[in-house]
Design a protein that fits this description.
Largest sheet: 7 strands, mixed
Structural class: alpha/beta
Strand content: 15-25%
Low-confidence stretches: 1-17, 19-30, 32-36
Number of helices: 6
Number of strands: 7
Helix content: 25-40%
Radius of gyration: 17 Å
Order of helices and strands: HHEEEHEHEHEEH
């Protein structure tokens, strides 16, 4: 009986991962949705976080860019899987003012730096050491991705791993 219970728990953990998959696939916004976005705008809470090299990043200072905030952790398998696609998206749209901020939540700087080096990541990684930013944004599972346009408005958010195609659709929500 104990073995069955342990097996059930292991299967549950392996199939659920570190977050649920997104329930809704991003779709290209309609003209009506684009018009209503400004009327119902939610300004993304400002924050100030440190990068791995010690530089300070303030969300408010990025108002000339479309920003994708990706909350993640090194122990989250889905986070690790989507990192190359986040890099691919940033590379494709960097000339169109896109910045992907990979916000590591609650892990020591040394562990994150080692992970980034071992995986050859070229994203802007910032550290939410005390989890204040993730708590302020209401992050409860990883990965969670939030799109913030040049006006500082949070235009879309998703819980769970996104495919590259879903990231492309997410990018369509930014105001041009």
């Amino acid at each position: 009986m104990k073995r069955i219970l342990i097996l059930a728990i292991i299967i549950s953990v392996l199939t659920s991962g570190c977050a649920e998959k997104p329930q809704v696939t991003p779709e290209k916004p309609t003209e009506q949705q684009e018009q209503s976005q400004s009327a119902n705008a939610i300004i993304a809470p400002d924050f100030e976080l440190e990068t791995l090299d010690g530089t300070t990043v303030k969300l408010h200072d990025l108002r000339d860019k479309n920003v994708i905030l990706n909350f993640w952790a090194t122990w989250c398998g889905f986070c690790v899987i989507e990192m190359p696609d986040l890099e691919k998206l940033q590379e494709k749209y960097k000339d169109e003012d896109l910045l992907v901020l990979a916000i590591n939540v609650g892990e020591p700087k040394e562990d994150v730096a080692k992970f980034v080096a071992e995986n050859g990541l070229d994203l802007t990684v910032v550290l939410d050491k005390n989890m204040a930013v993730s708590n302020n944004y209401g992050i409860r599972s990883f990965p969670t991705t939030i799109a913030v346009n040049k006006k500082g408005e949070a235009v879309r958010g998703y819980v769970g791993m996104l495919t590259y195609e879903q990231m492309e659709l997410l990018y369509d929500y930014f105001d041009e």
